[in-house]
TrEMBL record:
Organism: Paenibacillus agricola
InterPro entries the record matches: Metallo-depent_PP-like
Name this polypeptide is given: Phosphoesterase
C-alpha cells in the first residue's frame, strides 16, 4: 500500500532563506541537493506527497528539473510565493495535481499553506506550512514546513499518531 506524505516551504532556489531561517546549508545548490535526497529517502515512486506551498523560486525549466527528480505522485497546494504563477504553470512544471486553495483530506484534515483559523471546539486538524520555524500551540495545528521535519516529508501515519492518541485509533 502506498504511503501519503506532507511537506511545505522548500523555497528551492531562494538563497536568502538560508539566512532568514538559519538553514544548515552553505548555498542554494547544497540546499537543493540535500532536500531532494531527504525526500527520495522516504518517498517511494508509488507514494503520494502533498506539498503545501512555496516550492520554488526558480524558472519553469529548473523547477521542472527538480520536480522530475522527486519520487511519488505530487499534489501541490499553492503558497503565497507561488500564486504569482498560474495553476497551469505548476502543472507544466510537473506536479500531478495543483490547487489554489486549501483542501480537506480524509474528512478530518485541512491542508493549507497558511495556518487557518481553528477554534478549540472544532474537531479538525490544520496541516499547514508558511510559518517555517514557528509553531502554534495545541494538536489542532501541525506545521509541516521543512524546518520542522529535518527537510524530510512527514507521513500521515506519523501525523495521526501525534493527533490521535493510540488508544483512540
Amino acid at each position: 500500500m502506498a504511503n501519503v506524505f506532507v511537506i511545505s516551504d522548500h523555497h528551492f532556489g531562494h538563497k536568502h532563506i538560508i539566512d532568514f531561517e538559519s538553514r544548515p546549508f552553505s548555498n542554494a545548490e547544497e540546499m537543493t541537493e540535500t532536500m531532494i535526497e531527504k525526500w527520495n529517502a522516504v518517498v517511494n515512486k508509488d507514494d503520494k506527497v502533498f506539498h503545501l506551498g512555496d516550492f520554488s523560486f526558480l524558472n519553469k525549466e529548473k523547477t521542472a528539473s527538480i520536480v522530475s527528480r522527486l519520487n511519488g505522485y505530487k499534489s501541490f497546494i499553492m503558497g503565497n510565493h507561488d500564486r504569482g504563477r498560474s495553476r497551469r504553470w505548476w502543472l507544466d512544471a510537473g506536479f500531478d495535481e495543483v490547487s489554489e486553495h486549501a483542501i480537506v483530506y480524509g474528512g478530518f484534515f485541512f491542508l493549507s499553506h497558511e495556518p487557518m483559523y481553528m477554534n478549540k471546539h472544532m474537531p479538525y486538524v490544520n496541516i499547514h506550512g508558511h510559518i517555517h520555524g514557528q509553531k502554534y500551540e495545541g494538536n489542532q495545528y501541525i506545521n509541516v514546513s521543512v524546518e520542522q521535519w529535518d527537510y524530510t516529508p512527514v507521513s500521515f501515519e506519523h501525523i495521526k499518531s501525534i493527533v490521535v492518541p493510540s488508544e483512540e485509533q
